[in-house]
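new request in #modeling-help
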Amino acid sequence: MKKKTRVFDRILTVVLSLLCIAWIYPVFMILMNSLKKETAITTSSAFELPTAETFNGLANFVDAIGSKGFLSAFLTSLTITVTSVVLILVCCSMCAWYITRVQNVFTKLCYFLFVFSMVVPFQMLMFTLASTSDQLRLNTPWNICIIYLGFGAGLAVFMFSGFMKSIPLEIEEAALIDGCNPLQTFFLIVIPVLKPTLISVGILETMWVWNDYLLPYLVLDRKKYSTIPILIQYFKGSYGKVEMGPMMACIMLTVLPIIIIYVFCQKYIIKGVADGAVKG
Amino acid sequence: MVKTTRKWWPLFVLPTLLAFTIGFIIPFAEGLYLSLCKFTTINKATFIGFDNYVKAFSDAQFLNSLKFSVSFTVVSTLLINLLSFVIALALTRGIRGTNLFRGVYFLPNLIGGIVLGYIWNILINCVLSLTGQPLLALNADAGYWGIIILMCWQQIGYMMIIYIAGLQSIPNELIEAAQIDGATSLQTLFKVKIPNVMPSITICLFLTLTNSFKLFDQNLALTGGDPNHATEMLALNIYNTFYARSGAQWKGIGQAKAVLFCIMVVAISMIQLRATRSKEVQQ
């Protein structure tokens, strides 16, 4: 019996390793192509490794960083992601605390609306949202975070209040009796307990905002700003006219930071995903 | 305590609620109203009743993309959940390298849909050209299976994490008790493990169903609906109705389609949640 399971586990390890290669290969392929010379990048030779003749060093990467608006798109993406996620974490945790602690018709209605907004597809709002945000001048990388706050509130409030229901009330009551006002109670007592959930929600919202394409595409003033997904889609649209080498380098430059962050924060990211599901 | 807290609502709730009103409630309400109008901008709308809905249903393209979306959603939901559950089972046996495998399978989720679509566009086109078949822009079947493979590649890791968390939360005594009673590993799987991970199955089905049905980025970047709208899913069809067609009537029709789309997504979610919730066991 024992021997049999050991053999089975070996076979399993081999199968899982093969799957691993299949999972990494697409990214590896882009990396290889980004090191090739322009003429060597064709549709049918995408699988070939660069040879001595076609190897181009890091020239494509230098090109990509130097031109194509890559740096400004990267900065725009970064600005939007950081401001939005910080705003979501602060405002939604406060809102969720109030909603779970003060139970009345108004807070129940709010909670219902937040949960409902998670299900509604973006296409339902995209046209009206784009024109509303134009009127309110929310079409810059610094102001778009207000829209993200409204749009990300559903998931964040849902997850925060799911966790807050499990915090014992007595600690907060003790703090209030000792003379804390609700604001102090929240930041001194609730936030420290909430830290793991803050990290989880932060990770989920970051993954969403950083990769979001359609919302910034429709809302941002596209003559002035573009984000990384917008830039890549724009390149793809002009297939043939665009230099493929720097394009591949661009993709690698967007994927690499993600992989590096992932290697260091894997534990938190995976925990964040698992937490997000359990609260459902 | 509640009394003192209640007065503080402008500070705690108002910022989020204001943003939520601007970002969700107003656009949603306007969208509902505009679906009954003929308009090119919000301020120039004339009420025309349910005309847009009638036209939406008589648009062959819309019905085609509905069919495509439904078939894609069914196939991808089944494949993703089956495969990710099997991988989760394999990764909870305590074999060596479990953490590495888990880490690698999850990786694609961190890369955005547009970038993923573009990467797979290059990869699939290369395979097609090496095997002498028409490229994605002319090959609807390859487009269909391409999106399914891409979605499996991306979503299996995410669902796997949720299933692993579910499997690990089953108390060991339950599994040991089953084994002492002489249950085979298959019986343990179907009689003990699966009923106990029902909450995970509920949430995974919910996520895969809605993600697949609402899919936009990957569809746009991989096939863009080519050839001739044959691989266009609902979300992309609505987008194209809004922004790729000229003529005053199309924006209204697009908004009506979006409302229908929204109703479908809400209905699917409610039915699915109710159906699987009833099968969950209490621990």
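bot summary: The radius of gyration of chain A is 24 Å.
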